[in-house]
């Protein structure tokens, strides 16, 4: 029983996990920028050094919908409808985000 609980040299230390391995999302880059540097005359170009940066972009967008209003000859008002998914001044993405955050809170 005591031999089974002893830590031998071949065992891994408790609390240390194996490394995760390489990230495989570098094929899905959304933007590529070339950073240039000023060099002295006579320098030779040797190539590039890659650096992948992960970031999250959240951007607010306020859209002004100008809905046409027409009055027909018989006196009725005809107004253009809002696009599909617009409800109560919130777009579909904002509504989706708020529902996701509300569900995640539980």
From TrEMBL:
Location of the region described as Disordered in the Swiss-Prot/TrEMBL record: 1-32
Keywords: Plasmid
Biased composition (Basic and acidic residues): 22-32
Name used for this protein in its record: Uncharacterized protein
Source species of the chain: Rhizobium favelukesii
Native organism taxonomy: Bacteria, Pseudomonadati, Pseudomonadota, Alphaproteobacteria, Hyphomicrobiales
